[in-house]
Amino acid sequence: MNSLALPPQATQVGLAVDVAAFAMHAGELMVLLVQRGELPHARDWALPGGFVHPGEELHEAALRELRTETSVELEPRHLEQFFTFGEVNRDPRGRIVSVAHLAVLPHGTVSVSGGGHTLGAEWVSAHRPPRLAFDHQAILDRALARLQLRLEYANLALEFLPDTFTLPELQGVFEAILNRKLDKRNFRKRLLSQGTLTVSGERRSGVGRPAQLYRRAKGTRTPAL
Amino acid sequence: MNSLALPPQATQVGLAVDVAAFAMHAGELMVLLVQRGELPHARDWALPGGFVHPGEELHEAALRELRTETSVELEPRHLEQFFTFGEVNRDPRGRIVSVAHLAVLPHGTVSVSGGGHTLGAEWVSAHRPPRLAFDHQAILDRALARLQLRLEYANLALEFLPDTFTLPELQGVFEAILNRKLDKRNFRKRLLSQGTLTVSGERRSGVGRPAQLYRRAKGTRTPAL
DNA sequence: AGGGTTTGTGTCCCTGGTACGTCAAGGATA
DNA sequence: TATCCTTGACGTACCAGGGACACAAACCCT
């Protein structure tokens, strides 16, 4: 079965995956970065990622790199391939194409720790990241654009919150992703009329009027990405 | 510069591109296929595509394969990468990842002729293609979905028509891509209120009332994809 | 008790989309 | 030349969704 030969002009390239993983922190959209421990770009910040192993599917590689480099365990449904970067000179080591993935980290996934060949892993502001290695800024730009597109449809924002949450919190997630303010009343109207939320108990935020707690309605389990 | 070594576990894979190229014919959305001349899948139909050459950008490879296999010359602005297929066993020759591209053929590009290693090239119904080689049916499915998404925004449909055209013709393009009928009057309203069309002379279709001819308004050159 | 802070709510208007009936301009035919 | 057939052209009414907008309610703290 595997006995067929490849034509001679078939380029053999290094196959990599990169992951732009997002989470909410203090009302800000954060992206997960690692500090590279090896050349090239040693000590520079980069998106987690690395080479695909033989016999390994693309999404498996993405999950593995995320796990080994940042200790973040993720379900496949929170991962989506969104673009492949294959420019000839994007990597000084040779022709390396990277299949870039978008990851949405469910609320609670905050503990990160460097691993593998990295010097460390950290959450940084997605809209104001430090200087990134390779073409990772371009990758991040595209990831943000895709994330904003996805927001319109699904209940993607809910992934960033715990099981129960307040409407202002949910609005904060939207604002952090879209990077702009929204109108309170219109936001409520839209979300509630959509019927994907149900109420729970009460809650006090320590300051101001207590907010109503909501949770996602039953049967609203659309895949995150 | 190129002196850095790749880590040993870095998978070397074959890098390919495939192109789902669409055009209108007799009111139907057509996709461009080639009949394979070599193993595997010899004599089966497939999307045009092949291996990326060393030092060649992805989109260059896509354009080259299209040119050599089907004699279709295309501008880069009519090409868009939309997904990368990298399943481990998608190709019996080994690990081959294919970066799939969507192409919109401007009106007039009809003459196709087989070339390269193919037995021939042909236009077939995009919604009812024959059995395809490899995972090309999955690629086609995704290409159609993307095409339908794109339709909403841009003047993508105009790419399928000559410089001057009638509104019913334009509506036919929409219907062919969306694979469903549209309302005549609402379609006019939408398109004309958009202000991207201007009028020209008249024209008779041989049967029924002659239709007004339109052309795209000046300064409406948004990139096709 | 009062000030500060945050949540919660209703109205108007504009836009875009859909459903729908009717007239107009030709070609073909008798 | 009159009639019919075919297809293009046009306008109205209705509904849903989104954006702009101001004020009351609940809780904390001092």
UniProtKB/TrEMBL annotation, chains A, B:
Nudix hydrolase domain location:
14-148
InterPro entries in UniProt? NUDIX_hydrolase-like_dom_sf, NUDIX_hydrolase_dom, WH-like_DNA-bd_sf, WH_DNA-bd_sf, WHD_NrtR
What PROSITE patterns has UniProt attached to this entry?
Answer: NUDIX
Q: Which Pfam families match?
A: NUDIX, WHD_NrtR
Region of interest: Disordered: 202-225
**Which PANTHER family is this protein grouped with?**
ADP-RIBOSE PYROPHOSPHATASE, SLR1690 PROTEIN
Protein name listed in UniProt: Nudix hydrolase domain-containing protein
